[in-house]
Amino acid sequence: MKAPKRLQSLLEEGFIDSVVRQLMSGKEASVFVVRCGDETRCAKVYKDATQRSFRQAVDYTENRKVKNTRQARAMAKGTRFGKQATEAAWQSAEVDALYRLAAAGVRVPRPYNFHDGVLLMELVADAHGDAAPRLNDVEFTPEQARQHHDTLLREVVRMLGAGVVHGDLSEFNILLGHDGAADVPVIIDLPQAVDAAGNNHAQRMLLRDVGNLRDFFGRFAPELRQTHYGPEIWDLFQGGRLQVDSPLTGRFARKTGPVDLGGVLREIDDASAEEAARRLRMQTPR
């Protein structure tokens, strides 16, 4: 196919040899299958973030640092240059998170390069070598659901160990890839990843991520709906007791205390926004 304008520079620089086809198009980016020598990879071409809500942007970008003080001032003022810098920081957040998580052993696509707003990375494939499906497009037996749920909980724990919370983890941004003789979940879409220790919203996002996993796999293994792994994982993390192999029970006794009404209302707003985003993703073709 004819290479999109945003991929021309990668062709000219020799990062890719050809564009095979478009894999998907979403609100934040379009993804293309590309050839690099003998390998097939994918190129994620970011779009302008004009459709993101301000509140969500604040939640996700809180405490993200930029080294350039001029950029930081412009971002704070919301100038045209500042908006460009904010978008660049949003894009580089995914790149940084991918490298960080890959080094920590988390199952994410291997990143190769980031150039001119395009992220070149591994193409996650199924057993036939085709682009792997999203979890949302797959049916599971109860045993498979329990197995993948457990695997992904360990990935969440491993991510926390690397200081990262995904922030938008669900069946829509996890692929079912193939490794050796088994299907394995691979976590994708990380531009909204946050610092687990430096973001005031990290706990809420972690609980939502784990809750999304519980709700999805609970469709196939109903007993998972009664589990409370999120609070258990966060409690261990906060106490400095969380390890990759920490035993998890799915049971957690909530501490009693004054009700945070503002927090409850934020949770309701976030749940509504998440449901709206979920419906939008379901309508977006891959």
Describe this structure in words.
With 286 residues, this protein is an alpha+beta fold. It has a single domain, classed as Transferase(Phosphotransferase), domain 1 (Orthogonal Bundle). The chain has helices at 5-13, 54-61, 69-77, 80-103, 142-161, 202-217, 229-238, 261-283; strands spanning 18-25, 29-36, 39-46, 111-115, 118-122, 164-165, 174-179, 182-187, 194-195. Residues 51-56 and 70-76 have low confidence and may be disordered. The strands form three sheets. The protein has a five-stranded antiparallel sheet with strand order 1-2-3-5-4, with helices on both faces. A two-stranded antiparallel ribbon has the order 6-9. Helix 3 crosses helix 4, helix 5 (142-161) packs antiparallel against helix 6 and helix 6 runs antiparallel to helix 7.
* Uncertain runs: 51-56, 70-76
Measured as a percent range, the helix fraction is 40-55%
Average of the residue pLDDT scores: 83
Largest sheet, strands/sense/barrel: 5 strands, antiparallel
Question: Helices and strands: which structural class?
Answer: alpha+beta
The CATH topology is Transferase(Phosphotransferase), domain 1
Q: End-to-end distance, in Å?
A: 17 Å
CATH class term: Mainly Alpha
Shape: globular
Number of strands: 9
The secondary-structure element order is: HEEEHHHEEHEEEEHHH
Rounded to the nearest angstrom, the radius of gyration is 19 Å
Strand residue percentage: 15-25%
> Which strand order do you get reading across the main beta sheet?
1-2-3-5-4
The second-level CATH architecture is: Orthogonal Bundle
Number of helices: 8
The count of domains is 1
